[in-house]
Design brief:
Elements lengths: L1 E6 L20 H7 L5 E7 L20 E4 L2 E4 L25 E5 L22 H7 L4 E7 L1 H14 L3 E10 L6 H12 L2 E3 L2
Helix pairs in contact: 3-4
This protein binds pyrazine-2-carboxylic acid and zinc ion.
The site of pyrazine-2-carboxylic acid (VGL) has 9 residues, from helix 3.
Length: about 200
């Protein structure tokens, strides 16, 4: 079974959003067109409580895009984004939601960020997605979405480490590219055995 995993195609990651990824909206039509090629479609949704620990605004004297040390490792501090129930947390208005078998939310733990659709950033706390995929006999994943160098990257690497056959459609992803993070992500995905495709 082969599933399409659509990562965080949400308003805050598209132009006009609080953590806008350049060209984030350009991928929506292509993702919609791909959905019927798969036996399952799964969407992820970044879903933070207000005051989340990954927000710069939660740390006195800190600015967005600075790094801090958290108990689970280093963490980029982000502008407030994808707050539960907010407009910015909604999916892009043109993304087809009706074909989704599952919408999985992540980042709801106030103390830990979660880039990956599989584990929180402590690399231990599961989201439940692995169990869902295994119980549905899904063993192949194609990833698309936002952002290439953060949530797509961490999800793809975790999936490959868990033994799934993983490819990323780079043409249907867009990157934040913070201090070389895109190059680092491409290297990490390759090292984990993820296939990066351009079409
Ligand atoms: C993401 C930064 C913070 C992503 C989510 O979806 O790539 N990036 N939260
Ligand atoms: Zn987030």
């Amino acid at each position: 079974m082969h599933a399409l995993l659509v990562i965080d195609v949400q308003q805050d990651f598209c132009p006009g959003g609080s953590l806008a990824v350049a060209g984030g909206d350009e991928i929506v039509e292509g993702i919609n067109a791909l959905m019927s090629d798969f036996e399952a479609v799964i969407l992820t949704q970044d879903w933070h409580p207000a005051g989340h620990s990954s927000f710069a605004s939660s740390h006195e004297g800190c600015k967005p895009y600075e790094m801090i040390e958290m108990p689970y490792g280093s963490q980029v501090l982000w502008p407030d984004h994808c707050i539960q129930g907010s407009t910015g947390a909604q999916f892009h208005g043109n993304l087809i939601l009706d074909r989704a078998d599952l919408i999985i939310r992540k980042g709801y733990n106030p103390a830990i960020d979660s880039y990956s659709a599989f584990f929180e950033n402590d690399h231990k706390t599961p989201t439940g997605l692995e169990g869902y995929l295994r119980t549905r006999s899904i063993d192949r994943l194609t990833l698309v979405g936002l952002a290439t160098d953060f949530c797509v990257n961490f999800s793809a690497v975790d999936a490959a480490k868990l033994g799934f056959d993983v490819e990323v459609r780079l043409d249907l992803c867009r990157a934040i590219d913070l201090n070389g993070s895109l190059d680092a992500a491409l290297t990490a995905m390759k090292a984990a055995g993820v296939r990066a495709l351009s079409e």
